Amino acid sequence: LLTTNGILNELRYCCDIIRFRAVVLAPIVEEIIFRGCILFQLQRQFQTCGALCLCSGLIFAIAHLHHVVEMLYLGYPLNMALSEVLPQVLMTAIFGVYSTLIVLRSGHLIAACIMPIQPTYDSAFAELGAFLKAKSPLTAENAFVPLSNRIKYVDYCAHLIRCLQSMINDANFDKIDVATFFSRVIRLLKCLMPLKMKSEFLGDKPPVKSEQAKRVKISALRHALTRTWGKLLEKGLPDDLMLEALITLGDDQMEKMTDTAQLLGPYITVIFDPPASSSAASLPSWSRAVTRALLKVIHTGGLNYDRLYPRLYALLGQDLLVCPYADRFLLDLDIYLTSIHVPAGWLSAFSKRLFQLSLFGTAPLSIMPALITVGGNVLIRHLPCRVLIDRSGSQDENAPTMAECGPGGDPYVYHPEDLASDGSAALASSLWELACLECHYQSDIATLASRVRHIASNNGMNLLPDVKNQLESGKQLQVGVERASNQYMSVLEMTNARMPNLTPLEGWLMPTENSKALA
């Protein structure tokens, strides 16, 4: 039987007219009218109690077929409406027979009002199935509303997570639209277990030391949520959906989970650092896309990954300049390079390579401010790396100076798979690239390069703009330059002037077909 607290909790999370009719009004009024007024009239027509109970239950159950019309009005297809309502009709018939028997034996109408209340609750499994199997966006939206209203209760959330795990296991990707199923599962997972979730219960709070109380603890639910993500990832998703799932995990989902290093780490590391024989090894853009998810696993799950920085360094290839995930990768790289446990030589190699990328002919203006800022932040946070812009004679008289270095004489040469040797070479080099960037045609780039070059001076400003803001600023610069260049080209075309064929400048790296293909 439902307690008073259970009824109040039910009304609190879904106090709408339809729910009030189904849960309160219908069981009380219909039972009083039907069993109180009609039951005893039917008793005169039947000779046995069994026949009366059976007939009473069937008549009352058939009356519930009006829910089919209601579901059709909400947008459900006919076959789904019938599949949802017929089990309810069957359960209502069974409970109708039982409640009729109790009324006849006890003589109290209150039994008829209480017994049918429980079957009117929509099953979480049925509601979840209606959402995942909906044929249209409108139907899916209508089915999602009751789910989103109830997941704030820990007991309902625990049951829903178990149902979701079961449906993921039973899903047959050969017979369903995988993309639609995936998007709806991800939408539901995003809503489950927010960071500041309170321990509210839909029903009665279980005893403290009971088994049910252990299952509805916030920590246990967060572990169950992590396992649900793991079941989704091990289901064999297509490559694009797998990558989308890992990107979603890294954005805002990992913080509300536990045991991520054990349950989710293997799926992330195999994409971040795939084996050489794997097909994903030729797609470094995938590795850049999951750096944020790996960062969250390291911070929240305690993952220890030895090849972290060598792999990050290998991802600084020229194809980064045309990678669709370059923005998020640079944001993550700036956080990775804040560690004080990384050798100074390695950090110098990262900074040197970032400034080197800024000089490439393929470097778009949209990410140049971010490249310079991330490289400059290394010099600000790690004092030993400032030798690249402030090499005193007492440190190394034979070290090349900024004026002596150039594309042909720089001791630093980028080797993607040899961070250790590149670190030593970077410490022997200097950031002559900054002097070149100070002559950039775009004044914002030139000013930023000048600020970085004077970091070590007494009057230097040891503070650079935020990388995220620099990415937005770079996009605005790119739009402005493209607009101006289009205007100038339009004027030249109107004058019928011939544009000369300009050869690439000596010493500058130009785009290759391989670099474009890798992106």
Please give the alpha-carbon distance between the first and last residues.
62 Å
How many β-strand stretches? 0
Order of helix and strand elements from N to C terminus? HHHHHHHHHHHHHHHHHHHHHHHHHH
> Helical element count?
26
Helix content class: 55-70%
> How would a textbook summarize the main sheet?
none
Q: Beta fraction of the residues?
A: under 5%
Question: Could you walk me through the main structural features you see in this protein, from its secondary elements to its overall organization?
Answer:
This protein is mainly α. Among the domains are: 121 residues, no CATH class; 158 residues, no CATH class. The protein is built from 26 helices and no strands. 32% of the residues are buried. This is CBF domain-containing protein. InterPro entries: CCAAT-binding_factor (IPR005612), Noc4 (IPR027193), Rce1/LyrA-like_dom (IPR003675).
List the keywords:
61% helix, mainly alpha, 0% strand, disordered C terminus, 519 residues
Overview in brief:
The chain is mainly α and 519 residues long. Helix content is 61%, strand content 0%.
